[in-house]
Amino acid sequence: MAYDRYVAICRPLHYGTLLSSRACVKMAAVAWASGFLYALFHTGSKFSIPLCQGNVVEQFFCEIPQILKLSCSGSYLREVGVLMVTACLMFGCFLFIVVSYVQIFRAVLRIPSEQGRHKAFSMCLPHLAVVSLFVSTAFFAYLKPPSISSSALDLMLAVLYSVVPPVLNPFIYTL
After folding, report:
1. Domain ranges of the chain
2. Which of 132, 127, 141 is nearest to 86 (CA)?
3. Which of 103, 91, 172 is nearest to 135 (CA)?
4. Strand residue runs (E) in 61-145
5. pLDDT tens profile 129-141
6. Is the N or C terminus of the chain more exposed, i.e. has fewer CB atoms within 10 Å?
7. At how many degrees (to 10) do helices 151-162 and 114-143 cross?
8. Which residues contact 79 (CB under 8 A, 6 or more apart)?
9. 45, 164 contact by CB (below 8 A)
């Protein structure tokens, strides 16, 4: 979506060629394939962990931190590897979004009319708000200290970063 906004604002005359149906299919295929491979990586690493504290997860779905709470093995190195891959992927996506929006804001601030700037900002800010909500709650959910961990907080964070952004996504297009 950040790339779509970038092309629409910074290169509007090239929009049809840069975001043709073929380009959209390629981007969707890369997103689906990378998501599938990443999920396969996580699933494989988590299902090979022996559980010794039962198999009841106090979440809506099997979150990685909750599964690790149930494990009895010293899976420190495995978890560091998973976290490094996750951090690299998240940083790459975050960097792409930030660079896209920096370019967008530079282009928008060069628009001479107030009405044009307002229209461009109103097109970008809802997406940026949803991305910020997702990234901040996901970071807090995975990087919060164990001392403030509680079941209710974990459930609330899981809803905030997994349910709320997809629910808000259709409203982004109508704004």
Report:
1. 1-174
2. 141
3. 91
4. none
5. 888 888 888 777 7
6. C
7. 140
8. 68
9. no
Q: How far is CA 58 from CA 118, 141, 173, in A?
A: 45, 14, 34
pLDDT in the model for residue 87: 78
Q: Helices 114-143 and 164-174: crossing angle, nearest 10°?
A: 170
Q: Tell me the one-letter amino acid at 97.
A: I
Say if residues 30 and 54 touch (Cβ distance below 8 Å). Answer: no
pLDDT, mean of residues 108-134 = 83
Bridge partners (DSSP) of residue 51 are: 71
User: Do residues 120 and 127 touch, judged by C-beta distance below 8 A?
Assistant: no
Task: Enter the DSSP assignment of 50.
Answer: P
Q: Please, which pLDDT band fits residue 74 given cuts at 50, 70 and 90?
A: low
Report whether pLDDT(7) > 70: yes
In the block, tokens 């940083």 appear at: 91
